[in-house]
Amino acid sequence: MPREDLDQQLGILQQEISVLAGVVGKAVLRSVDALKRRDLEDSRQIVAEDDYIDQKRFEIEERCMDLIATQQPMARDLRTIIALLHIVVELERMGDYAEGISKISLMMGDAPTLKPLIDIPRMADKATVMLRDSIDALINRDLVKAEHVCRSDDEVDELYDQVYRELLLFMIQDPKTIERATHLLWVAHDVERIADRATNIAERVIFLVTGKMVEINVSRY
Predict the structure, then answer these.
(1) What is the pTM of this model?
(2) At what angle do helices 75-108 and 3-37 cross, to 10 degrees?
(3) What letter would DSSP give residue 211?
(4) What pLDDT, in 10s, does the model give residues 136-167?
């Protein structure tokens, strides 16, 4: 494959990953919004749509592996393909978390949430901005933006800690709230992990640009 053809194939793969990231980001926001509104039908739809995210992951992985097998890329091109392989896995896992949030919503049935959701949607907003910025950093090879994503994870962690403490207080004060509080803890944990995955993508971008793999974000869970 001529140099220009390989560049074109890599560019197409990156654009498809960008599109998939948009789908995943919307799924995350929709899952939290459906939980907040107690829209069970929307939650069911998000669960069903996760199959599309799974399928796109496998398609992109297959094409990356095909490039490795047929072109035997070296140096920068190999780093690009390896980074794309890792990034598409992160996106698929984020989709799984959106699906998990929707399943929790369905598990809750018609019951209202224990409390109005404020901090969890804020977490989701920040996590999806991190996702968008990490993909922008990938497309533009923007090291500064990738590093900013990694630093932003602390904001999501702080919100998670706030949610955790608040829900724990509910459970201590009234044991009857334990089940409903636990559901929200699961959701908050899923959103926190989505932010961690966005940071993982940013770390892969740093690897792609510099050739050095630096673990900036270390999950506490």
Answers:
(1) 0.92
(2) 20
(3) S
(4) 999 999 999 999 999 999 999 999 999 999 99
